[in-house]
Amino acid sequence: MPEKIRKRLAPEVFGLPVEDIKTGFYSDKYFVRAREILKKDGNSARVLMQVFARKPGVICGMDEAIAILKVGAEDPDDLVIRGLFDGDSFGSKETVMTIEGEYSTFAHLETIYLGVIARGTAVATAVRDVVEAAEGRPILFFPARFDGYETQQRDGYAAHIGGAYGISTDGQGAWWGGTGLGTVPHGLIAAYGGDTVKATLAFDRYMPEEIKRIALVDFNNDSVGTSLAVARALQGRLFAVRLDTAADLRDISVRSDSPGSRGVCPELVISVRRALDENGFNRVKIVVSGGFTADRIRRLITENIPFDMVGVGSSLLKEKIDFTADIVMVNGRPGAKVGRAYLPNPRLFRT
To answer: Where exactly does CATH 3.20.20.70 map onto the chain?
Structure first.
């Protein structure tokens, strides 16, 4: 079979603030001043810049970084840019990108392109970790409320690159054509007097048929009873129930009083699954959410807990993968600082 053609997102996708990037508004001041000094001194040194991280991960933000170089450099056509593709895995200290050109024309961009790679890679790596932990069960990307809205497009794209099944906002899907998924929120249930059945029936009444009916069933801390009540009310239209019991609460169906019996614990998931099956609702799926991490997902799978999907939130924003850029060649000769050296990588693609 012919090799799959790999494409990058066009610079226009990112809606970059081009003039601010060119002036150095978002750049560390020493890079802006370095450019000014080189220009005034007539220093036209041609360099090879090398980018790497000390931790392994899943690269994301490469397309945006290349876009920043293309719109922000003084002579972008003169730059030779090579990099991995978004979604590629990389190792510790592996070169993920090189930029070759006259340093004074792109020195001011280092802060920005390193930042977008760092953010995107951190999110994509965290998502890939939970996707692998879930062993084929879909992961819903739910951290929008834990950061500023202006991060949504970049984070949603990184979640997509990392393998998330769904996102929660349309903003998160803007770069790749995704749309937000959503269940019935606690606020809607509260607006119907705490009656989950009424709220879910209203959702069912007014939302298009193609939107899956997923009921949030922890409002009254009776996930078993509420799951059955909603399943009966929707008469076969219920796709799933979402368990979201707070970490400091014990659902009334849970008999154990151990430290691990609070929140969405194994006993709760088993109880809901058993109740649904015994009452003829075996086709209704179970979504678990509320403080889930890759390790917690792995424990559920190890214990054969019957869940179908996972909503993961703030833990996906806690990964940190910092990138470093070094000049390693100057005018065709080695020029790296002590402790660094040019590390060619045949996996890099020229853009």
So the answer is: 134-317
* 135-192 per-position pLDDT tens digit: 999 999 999 999 999 999 999 999 999 999 999 999 999 999 999 998 899 999 999 9
Q: Hey, what CATH topology would domain 134-317 get?
A: TIM Barrel (3.20.20)
Tokens of 12: 């226009």
Distances (CA, A) of 180 to 28, 152, 170, 208, 341: 35, 11, 5, 14, 44
Q: Which CATH architecture has domain 11-122+320-350?
A: Alpha-Beta Barrel (3.20)
Question: Which tokens hold the place of 140?
Answer: 């819903």
| Nearest residue to 226 via CA among 184, 271, 196, 191 | 196
The answer to whether the pTM exceeds 0.90 is: yes
CATH 3.20.140.10 domain range(s) in the chain: 11-122+320-350
The predicted-structure confidence for 190-219, as pLDDT tens digits, reads as follows: 999 999 999 999 999 999 999 999 999 999
Task: Give the Cα separation of 192 and 239 in Å (integer).
Answer: 21
Parallel, antiparallel or unpaired: strands 46-53 and 97-102: antiparallel
Specify whether the CB–CB gap between 70 and 115 falls below 8 A. Answer: no
